[in-house]
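lol forgot to send this yesterday, sorry. struct tokens for the thing we talked abt
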């Protein structure tokens, strides 16, 4: 059994200094239940590097004020920082203009914005929306609510047993009444990387716009919305080593100009009288009320941090972790990995025949290993495979092979507790 230690071997990926990277994350030095923390729940929410924490704290301590329309120095500086964060995100996504970058609380709110403002305004009874069987609830429930309100029809693109997106079946679902496609870029349960280039191409051949839930994608790979030619792209800050309470909706300007506001209030207006309100320009037309100012600054710092390491290096490191974890877990009797699509992201969902996923996660926690257990906000996918849930280890740029060993050793302990060899 590997020793429980807070020292971590170097990554086999050349020039990837995982020890230095781990030193940037204060929380990774703590203990839980008297053991060094092994944090394998980055897919739910990533830890934050010191650069992000310091940027947010420093801004709050010396630079904070409300943004837009303030005539004093602090307000002007805060506005510059906030709108500078928008430009940073525009560059991160390679969007064509800052007006196409809308701040939201998270991916869920971004999808709801599209569901209510775009689909709610331009779809009608009998129109069809195509989603997939592997969607997070955030990309299911808003469309169900729209179905119940307007009478639109949901069609579900299937997933193959190994977790691959069924592209042929998806193509067959596209028809004359298809008005929108909304699918994940990377599955939060299976790690499947959806062939979004083909998804978009097939939809656009029929003049159907596409929304991608990029929450799990932007963490692991660069995303170029211009090259993808995607209509809507959503992601959330807290999975990208940034703060919670902020997300991003990218949308093509042509769509945003047609879409009515979803929420009303301050900052999304140009003028208000009791007779009429005139909406503000893009992007502020969709940002009612005081925005997440400190969080936007923190998200920009997180993007700076990730890009300084480099997505190529991160991808190689995470691919090594995924291969090593798959090898170690495949050696455990009674353990089944759920989702083995080629080229998947560094997410490993699994079941253990002797214990419920909740029991597995609870026992692992006592060993200092943090994983997620349950349906992962993907109950239809669990129902499809007749599973009560899975345990899920999701890896990030700071994880190590030594932590994979800790996970495997803890799972052997679970089997012994339940009387298995």
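and heres what i got for the seq, position by position
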């Amino acid at each position: 059994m590997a020793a429980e230690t807070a020292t971590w071997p170097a990554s086999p990926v050349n020039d990837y200094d995982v020890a230095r990277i781990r030193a940037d994350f204060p929380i990774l030095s703590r203990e839980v239940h008297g053991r060094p923390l092994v944090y394998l729940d980055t897919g739910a929410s990533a830890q934050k590097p010191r650069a992000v924490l310091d940027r947010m704290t420093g801004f709050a301590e010396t630079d904070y004020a409300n943004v837009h329309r303030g005539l004093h120095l602090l307000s002007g500086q805060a506005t510059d920082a906030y709108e500078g964060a928008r430009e940073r995100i525009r560059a991160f996504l390679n969007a064509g203009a800052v007006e196409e970058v809308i701040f939201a609380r998270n991916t869920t709110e971004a999808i709801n914005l599209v569901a209510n403002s775009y689909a709610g305004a331009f779809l009608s009874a009998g129109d069809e929306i195509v989603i997939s069987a592997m969607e997070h609830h955030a990309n299911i429930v808003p469309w169900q609510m729209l179905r119940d309100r307007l009478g639109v029809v949901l069609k579900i693109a299937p997933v193959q047993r190994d977790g691959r997106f069924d592209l042929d079946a998806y193509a067959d679902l596209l028809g004359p009444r298809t008005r929108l496609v909304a699918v994940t870029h990377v599955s939060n349960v299976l790690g499947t990387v959806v062939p979004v280039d083909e998804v978009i191409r097939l939809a656009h051949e029929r003049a159907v716009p596409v929304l991608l839930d990029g929450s799990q994608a932007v963490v692991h790979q660069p995303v170029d919305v211009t090259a993808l030619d995607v209509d809507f792209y959503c992601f959330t800050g807290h999975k990208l080593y940034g703060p919670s309470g902020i997300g991003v909706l990218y949308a093509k300007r042509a769509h945003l100009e047609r879409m009515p506001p979803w929420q009303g209030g301050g900052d999304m207006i140009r003028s208000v009288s009791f007779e009429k309100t005139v909406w503000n320009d893009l992007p502020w037309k969709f940002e009612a009320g005081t925005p997440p100012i400190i969080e936007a600054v923190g998200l920009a710092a997180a993007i700076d941090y990730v890009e300084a390491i480099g997505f190529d290096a991160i991808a190689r490191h995470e691919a090594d972790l995924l291969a090593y974890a798959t090898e170690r877990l495949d050696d455990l009797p009674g353990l089944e990995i759920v989702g083995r699509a080629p080229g998947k992201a560094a997410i490993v969902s699994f079941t253990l025949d002797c214990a419920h996923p909740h029991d597995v996660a609870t026992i692992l926690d006592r060993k200092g290993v943090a994983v997620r257990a349950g349906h992962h906000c993907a109950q239809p996918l669990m129902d499809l495979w007749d599973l009560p849930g899975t345990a899920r280890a999701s890896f990030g740029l700071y994880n190590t092979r030594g932590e994979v060993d800790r996970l495997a050793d803890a799972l052997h302990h679970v089997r012994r507790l339940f009387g298995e060899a």
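The chain has two domains: 18-49+311-417, 53-307. anyway ping me if u want another try
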